[in-house]
Amino acid sequence: MDNKAGVLVPTSMNENRPIKKSMSSQPKKVKKLDVFVRGLIFPIIVLGLWELAGYTDIISETLLPRPSNIFTTFLDLAQTGDLFNHVQISLLRALGGFLIGGSLGLIMGLLVGFSNKVEQTLDPTLQMIRTVPTLAVIPLFILWFGFGEMSKLLLIAKAAFFPLYVNSFLGIRSVDTKLFEVAKVLEFSRWKQITNLILPSALPNILLGLRLALGAAWLALVAAELMGSSEGVGYLIMDARQFSQTSIVFVGIIIFAVFGKASDSFVRYFERKLLKWRDSFQG
Amino acid sequence: MSLLEIHDLDKSFHTNNGLTHALKNIQLTIKNGEFITIIGPSGCGKSTLLKIIAGIDIEHSGSVKIDQKEVIGPSIDKGFIFQEPRLFPWFTVEKNIAANFSLNDIKVRKKVDELIKLVRLEGFKKAYPKELSGGMAQRVAIARALLRNPKVLLLDEPFGALDAFTRSHMQEVLFDIWQENRTTMIFVTHDIDEAIFLANRVIIMNARPGTVQKVIRIDSPYPRKKSNKSFQDFRHLVLNEFDKTDELELVDRAGI
Ligand SMILES: Nc1ncnc2c1ncn2[C@@H]1O[C@H](COP(=O)(O)OP(=O)(O)O)[C@@H](O)[C@H]1O
Ligand SMILES: [Mg+2]
């Protein structure tokens, strides 16, 4: 306290100051830019060396095409419109599977979270299924549904289901009992208890589940498309591999990476918006 | 007119290490509009007594009546302030006060605005709990209870976690609220000065088992000054009670 004279300052003046840890925003921005630039140094050096190595024929073009080469391949593919089609198909698959699996996971997680009876009935079975690796059920899905869209959607749905199921269940069960006591003293109705207490308190976990589910859906998409398909980014990759068109393989991999990162950032953006009340959230 | 009547209240906890006799033979009558402070060593059953009055704990023998009606559970006419503010972190200050009521309701809106003024939090309506200091958060909790027009406000060491400056400020805020609303207050503390500063009557409790040892009426006029002679006299009166029971623990904790 900056009270050098030892005088009693009216406490209300000290007291009504919010404890926001606010730095002036100007130096913060400069620092952010700094960090960004520093992060770029390494990749640029690597790309430069890589380009040089290809240019001087140290590395074979079929094994590791030069970055510039990959870029022109990307432009070619984009111009024919082929690339756009493949990306669209892949996105639809991922989204479809994610919506089916994710919404089921969320609903089941909430049901199991809210009711002990439902938990006792469903959770043991679901936990057992959860331990089965997604990749291990691929042969089964192929046997049942062939190589068609159905087996792909189901595979992605299975992958997206569990992160949301587990995390929304956990979120509902970890509501602070002290706040429950408050809700009782304030005579919350069951409905208000759910909307004002349980769901907001479970939201951080649910959003985490959402992010993990998106990631899992994306991984499953790659696996599903590589196991056999006639369109999609995975097909593009497999097809190019057969003809040793390594630069196209690279384009496919980069597209998978970019969209994976984009979907993750999208959910993070929502987290930042919805969880701004959180103490620990330093988004 | 008596608001609260407690007769032959007895309370035991069954635990793994046997039986704890938390409250024994409590008799207490509190008038409407009274300010009661309860003081006593830690573990003497102050919180237990408050929770029983609030209806949060209803497993006891004897009777606890508010307005001639037996307390059978928690309700909004018995406001409860915990030691921690216990705000909903996802709500702003105004929404925390309104809680299950809608701020779109004109009556609620108006009352919430009045209460924000009463607890001196103008300018912080839209702040989240993480942006508040401990004292501010506790004032939000008090406003939240007051919005429901409680017959009695039960406060369990509400300022115990605050620093000395903030605490004496909060005592004044609470005193002003009481002067304005005349809500009956039952206030648990382990700070002797705090107890004397606020109370019509100070109830001194004793531990193992928890009993009411003495009730001291503080009949000096408000607002009181802690440096006054009469204040010091009451202080000695209370301290004497603790000397009788050799409970140095309390005196230690009060920092005297
Ligand atoms: N939920 C409980 N289960 C078992 N024993 C308890 C419980 N709550 C309080 N007690 C016991 O009852 C006695 C009174 O506790 P409490 O009312 O919290 O005291 P105070 O608030 O005066 O410090 C203590 O001995 C404590 O250990
Ligand atoms: Mg206590």
UniProtKB/TrEMBL annotation, chain A:
InterPro entries named in the record: MetI-like, MetI-like_sf
Tell me, in one coarse class, where this protein mainly resides.
Answer: membrane
From its record, what is one biological process in GO terms? alkanesulfonate transmembrane transport
**What membrane topology does the UniProt entry give?**
Multi-pass membrane protein
Sorted alphabetically, the keyword list is: Cell membrane, Membrane, Transmembrane, Transmembrane helix, Transport
Q: Which Pfam families match?
A: BPD_transp_1
Q: Where are the membrane-spanning stretches?
A: 35-55, 94-116, 128-147, 153-175, 196-223, 243-263
Q: Where in the cell is it found?
A: Cell membrane
Among its keywords, does the record have Transport?
Answer: yes
Q: Looking at the UniProt record for this protein, which Gene Ontology cellular component terms does it annotate, in alphabetical order?
A: plasma membrane
**Domain of life, per the record?**
Bacteria
**Stretches assigned to the ABC transmembrane type-1 domain:** 87-267
- Family per UniProt? Belongs to the binding-protein-dependent transport system permease family.
UniProt name for this protein: ABC transporter permease
Name the species this protein comes from: Peribacillus cavernae
Automatic annotation (TrEMBL), chain B:
Q: Quote one Gene Ontology molecular function term.
A: ATP hydrolysis activity
In terms of PROSITE patterns, this protein maps to: ABC_TRANSPORTER_1 (PS00211), ABC_TRANSPORTER_2 (PS50893)
User: Domain ABC transporter spans what residues?
Assistant: 4-234
Mind telling me which CDD domains this protein's record contains? ABC_NrtD_SsuB_transporters (cd03293)
Tell me one Pfam family matched here.
ABC_tran
What InterPro entries has UniProt attached to this entry?
Answer: AAA+_ATPase, ABC_transporter-like_ATP-bd, ABC_transporter-like_CS, ABC_transporter_ATP-bind, P-loop_NTPase
Q: Which SMART domains match?
A: AAA (SM00382)
UniProt KW keywords:
ATP-binding, Nucleotide-binding, Translocase, Transport
**PANTHER family this protein is in?**
ALIPHATIC SULFONATES IMPORT ATP-BINDING PROTEIN SSUB (PTHR42788:SF13), TAURINE IMPORT ATP-BINDING PROTEIN-RELATED (PTHR42788)
Protein name as annotated: ABC transporter ATP-binding protein
Which organism does this record belong to? Peribacillus cavernae
